[in-house]
Amino acid sequence: MERRIHNGIPWYDQNGNPVNAHGACMVPAEGKYYLIGEYKTDDVNKYMGFSCYSTENFTDWTFEGFVLPPLKEGLLGRDRVGERVKVLENRVTGKYVMLMHTDDMRYCDPCIGLAVGDQITGEYAFQGPLLFQGKPIRFWDMGTFTDEDGTAYLLTHEGNIYRLDEDYTEAVELVAENIAPGGESPAMFKAQGIYYLMLSHKTSWERNDNYYFTAKNLQGPWEYRGLFCPEGSRTYNSQCSYVFQYGDTPVYMGDRWSYPRQASAATLVLLPIQAGNGEMRIPEYLPVWSPDALVKSDYRMEHSLAFRSNVRNGGISVGYTGERIALFGNTDNHGGYGNIEITNEKGDCVFLASIDFYSAVPDSGLRFLSPKLAYGRYILRISVSGENSVCMTKNGTKYGSDDCYIDVTGWTVLGEM
Questions:
Q1: 62 FRET partner, CA 20 to 30 A, in 4, 193, 369, 380?
Q2: Are 24 and 85 in contact (CB under 8 A)?
Q3: Half-sphere exposure of 50 (CA within 13 A, CB side)
C-alpha cells in the first residue's frame, strides 16, 4: 500500500468531512496510526470533545468517534477549554492514558487533566487533574514524551519536565524546569542518545520560527540550539505539536491554525526530521511525500488556470472526469478563504469545502485534494468567501491577512480512465 502524506491541505474522512483533530498526537496501534486531537468549531473556541481518526496510508482517514466527549460539569464541562491532548500507551498496565490542558474560556484557570481508557479509540474515563505532590499541575500548553525504557514524561510551556509514575497517572518528579521561558507548545524526541525539546514562541494562532534545545539527560544541562527550519520560514507556516516515530524516522507534526475557520480550514504539517550529533533540522518543505521512501511525491499540475480575485462570490469553475481533483495555487499575507463546491452531472452538490489562501510566508503548490468520489463527470467551482484569517494576542497584537484573495494556478485529475 502506497503511503502519501499531504501537507498543509485539509484531509477528509470516510464521510467527506474535514479531519478535525488539532494540537494532536499520532499513536501507532494494531497496524494503523491513530490521530487524536481537538475537535474544533468555527464559531467558538470551547471544548467540543477530543476526536479520533485512523489511517493505514495517511491519505484515507476513518473517523472513529469522540474518545472523550464534553462532560456535564468540571474541568471539561460546559464553557470550558480542552486542548493539546496527548495519549500514552502503557505497555505494563495495558491502559491508554490521556493528558490534556483544561481551562476556562478566558484562559484564567489552567489545569492538566487526566483520563484513562482500555482501548486507543476509547471511550476514556476522565479522572480529574493530574497531581504533583498532591496538587493539580496548573500549566496550559503541554506535551508528552515516552523514553526507551517506557518512562513517560509531561512537558509544559516554559520548559518544565515532570516524570510520571509507572501507571502514568501521577507526576512524581519535577525533572527540569524553566528551560525555555516564553516557550509554548512543547514536543520532544530522542535520537542517538540525545534528547531534543522543541518549542514555539507565543504569537496566538499565528506561526513563528520554532526552536529547540538538546541535552544528554533530561535533568540537563539543556543547551539552546536555535532554529530547526530555515529562518523566516515560520517553521514552514506551522507550530510544533508532537513527534512520532515512523520506523527509524522521527516525524515532526505541526498545526496550521486558521482562525476563525479552525474546523473547516485548519490543517496539519508532517515532515521527516534529520537528527544526529546533537543537531536537528527539517531542511526542506515537502508538500507531498512518501514516509516509506522519505522522498517528495508531489502531483504534477496538468492544467494551468489563472484566477486571482478578492471579489466576494467571484469564482471560477472546472469540469472534469475522474475520482479526485487537485487544485494548485499561491498563498500570501493577502489571502482569504475559498469556498469549494463539487456538483455531479445531475447538478447535485456532492461536496463542500473551505480552504485557506493565507500564509505569512508566501507559498506555491498544492492547495486542495478532494476526497475520492465515484468515477464520473463533475464540476468544481471555487469562489471568494470574502473572509480572511485574523487573530489577536492577549496584549492586542494583530496577526493575519490584510485581504481576502484566492489565487488558483491550475488543477490535476486523479483516477482518469
A1: 380
A2: yes
A3: 33
pLDDT mean over 228-238: 97
CA 1 to chain centre: 24
C-alpha cell of 185? Answer: 507548545
pLDDT for res 369: 97
Kindly state the helix (H) or strand (E) to which residue 160 belongs, with its residue range.
Answer: strand 160-164
The single-letter DSSP state of residue 362 is -
Query: What are the CA-CA distances from residue 78 to residues 44, 104, 112, 263 (Å)?
Result: 13, 9, 17, 19
d(CA 314, CA 358) in angstroms, rounded, equals 18
Q: All 3 cell numbers of residue 336?
A: 482569504
- State the architecture of 5-296 in CATH terms: 5 Propeller (2.115)
- Which CATH superfamily groups domain 303-414? Galactose-binding domain-like (2.60.120.260)
The three cell numbers locating residue 379: 464540476
Query: Residue 416: which pLDDT band, with cuts at 50, 70 and 90?
Result: low
Work out whether strand 171-176 and strand 239-246 pair parallel, antiparallel, or are unpaired.
unpaired
**Residue showing cell 507526576:** 171
Give the Cα separation of 40 and 258 in Å (integer).
11
Do the Cβ atoms of 71 and 79 come closer than 8 Å?
Answer: no
Q: Where are the beta strands (DSSP E) in 177-278?
A: 184-191, 194-200, 211-215, 223-227, 239-246, 249-256, 267-272, 274-276
Buried/exposed code over 308-317 (b: 16+ C-beta within 10 A; e: otherwise)? ebbeeeebee
Length of the chain: 417
Mean pLDDT within 373-388: 97
Helix or strand (DSSP H, E) at 98: strand 96-104
Average pLDDT over residues 232-236: 97
Task: Say if residues 274 and 29 touch (Cβ distance below 8 Å).
Answer: no
What residues have CB less than 8 Å from 47, skipping those under 6 apart? 70, 76, 80, 81, 82, 102
All 3 cell numbers of residue 117? 481508557
E strands in 247-357: 249-256, 267-272, 274-276, 279-281, 288-290, 295-296, 303-309, 315-322, 324-331, 337-344, 349-356
- Mean per-residue pLDDT over the chain, rounded: 96
Q: How much is the pTM? A: 0.96
Residue ranges of domains in the chain: 5-296, 303-414
